[in-house]
Design goal:
- The chain is an all-beta fold.
- The protein has no helices and eleven strands.
- Strands 6, 7, 8, 9, 10 and 11 form a six-stranded antiparallel sheet that branches. Strands 1, 2, 3, 4 and 5 form a five-stranded antiparallel sheet that branches.
- A hairpin with a 3-residue loop joins strand 3 and strand 4.
- The termini are far apart.
Length: about 170
């Protein structure tokens, strides 16, 4: 269902399975999943970020764009962020392989160049090891990335998060 057809308390309560939604993905992506909620950008198009992995190379925050407001077919556009670092400590140290449970959202006004501050938040997934946890069992690898983002241009260029800062999320 799309926003235009929502009315009353039953909005979004009836769903019809439509089959695979991702119409395309880079062949080098080994795993992909954990879609963030879709949003309508100021260019009028619907986007969604998913965690993706290129095994042994990097975690990708894959940006998909819907073909229309039904959100039933989405095409890969670009990776807004690529992370290829070693995270953690001690026995729980490993190579960052995938963005787990990502979220991406705007902060603040649109700038004169058309960009807007955005925050990307995700937890680390380690190659071959799963989510990163501390010895006492609490998740410690939730990280934020803050930067400028604008929707990709009509020719498909752009769309990456231009980083200002990043760091651990301190709950």
């Amino acid at each position: 269902a799309d926003r235009a057809s929502c009315a009353g308390p039953t909005c979004l309560s009836n769903w019809t399975k439509v089959g695979p939604v991702l119409a395309s993905q880079p062949k080098e992506f080994g795993r992909i999943g954990d879609p963030a909620r879709p949003w309508k950008a100021r260019d009028g198009r619907w986007y969604q970020v998913l965690g993706a992995a290129v095994k042994g190379v990097a975690g990708h925050a894959a940006l998909y764009r819907a073909r229309d407001a039904t959100l039933t077919k989405m095409d890969f556009v670009t990776s807004i962020l690529v992370e290829n670092q070693t995270v953690g400590f001690g026995e729980n140290k490993g190579f960052f392989d995938m963005f787990e449970c990502p979220d991406f959202f705007p902060l603040g006004p649109i700038q004169p160049d058309g960009s807007q501050k955005h925050v990307f938040i995700s937890s680390a997934y380690l190659q071959g090891g799963g989510p990163l946890y501390t010895a006492d069992g609490y998740h410690n690898a939730v990280t934020f990335w803050l930067g400028d983002w604008a929707p990709p241009a009509a020719d498909g260029s752009g769309g990456q998060l231009r980083l200002d800062s990043s760091g651990p999320v301190d709950w």
